[in-house]
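Reviewers of the previous submission asked for a worked example of the structure-prediction workflow described in the proposal, so we include one complete record here. The input consisted solely of the amino acid sequence. No template or homolog information was supplied to the procedure at any stage.
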Amino acid sequence: MLLKLAWRNVFRQKRRTILTLLTMTGGFFLSSISIGWMNGSYGSIIMFFTNGRTGQIQIHHSGYLEDPSIYSTISDYQSIGAVLDSLPGVRTWAPRIYSGALLAVRSGDAESGNVFSNSAAASVIGLDPSMEDAATDFSSNIVSGGMLTASAADSFYYATGQIILGQELSIILDASAGDSLIMLSQAADGASADRKYVIQGIVSTGNADIDRNTCYITLADARIMFALSGKVHELAVMTNSLGTVDDLTEDISARLSGRDVETDSWKTFAKEFYNGMKADESSLKVMIFIIMFVAAMGVLNTILMMVLERRREFGVMKALGTKPGFIVRMIVLEANIMGIISIIAGSILSTGGLLFLSKHGLVLDPPINYGGTVFSEMIASISPDCYWIPAICVIITASTVSFLPALKAAHTKAAKSLRTV
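From that input alone, the workflow returned the following C-alpha cells.
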C-alpha cells in the first residue's frame, strides 16, 4: 500500500515531478562526469609523468632519497632485477647512475688550442640505452642526433665517449649533435674523472628545468668514469597498471627484505608532484559537493512546495486515522523513487558523455603544467566510481531533504487543513 501510494503521488503532478527529476539528474550527471574526468585525466597525467621519467616504483640504497650520494649504491642490482622480472605486475625496469660534472665545449677556433668557449654544471645520468628505451621510450624524445650506442668508452677509460644533452643545456653550451666537449668530475674513489665526449644527440623531455641541467651517458661509461664497477644508484620500475602500484611496492619490499635497499612508490619519490595532484583532487571533490548541494536545495524547495500544495490531502489522511509515521515514510519514499529514476536517467546520459570524453578528450588551451611536464589534452575514464558515488549522493540527498518536509506534513492538523480553501 505504501509503495503504491508513493508511486501514484510521484506522477500525479507531472510538472513538479519533472522539475525534481531534472534537478537530481543534472546533479548526478555533473558529478559522474567530474569523477570520470578526475580519474581519467589524473590517471593519464600520472602515467605519462612516471612512464616518461621516474617510473612508478624506484629502488635505492637505504637512505638515498633523504641524502643522495654517489656512495649510496646498489651493488647486486642484477639479482634484484631477476626478482623484478619474476613479478607479473612489473612491465620492465631500468638501472641508473647519478652524478654531477662540469661540461666545457672547446672553442671552434683551431688556433686557440685548449680554450673553452662555454661551460656549465650539469647532472649526469648513466643509463642502459636498450633498457631505458624499453622503460621510458627515451629515444622518442631525441630532437637532434641519435640514441647512445656501444663505444670504446664503455670499456676503456681514455676513449672518447658519447653524450646526450638536454635541449636547454645545449643552448647554454651553444653545442649541437656532432660537437665535442670535456666532462670534469670526481669519481667515487676520490680520483678525478674527466673524459672527452662527442655529442650524440639532443633530447627534450618536456621539462625545461631538467633539460637545462641534465646530460646522459651510457651506464657502462658511467661505471668506469665514476669508479662504480657493478653498481648503480637506482632501479626505476615500470608497472602494468597504476592501480597495482601500492600493492606491488609492498610485494617488492617484502621480497627484498634483508637487503640494504628501500622500495618506494611515485607518491614518495615524486612527493611534490603527488601533493599537487592531491590538492587538485581535493578541489574537484569540493566542486562535486557544491554540485550536489545545489541539487539538494532544488529538491528541498520542490518537496516543500509539494507538501504545502497537499495540505488538505494530508489533513484527510490524518482525519481517517493515518499515523504520522506512515506519512513520513510515504513522502521520503516518493523522493527516493524520483531519486532512483534520476539515477537511471543520469547513468544513461553520463555513459554517453564519458564515452565521448574518453575517446576524444578535451584539448587544453592554454596547456597545464604538472611537475614541470606540460599536458595539452586530458581524457576521462569510465569506472564504477562514476556511478555508485553519485548514486549514493542522490539517495542520501533525496532522503535527507525530504525528511523535514515529511515531518511537517505528518504533523498537519486535520481540522485546520480541512478548513483551508
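The mean pLDDT is 85. We consider this example representative of the routine output the project will generate in years two and three.
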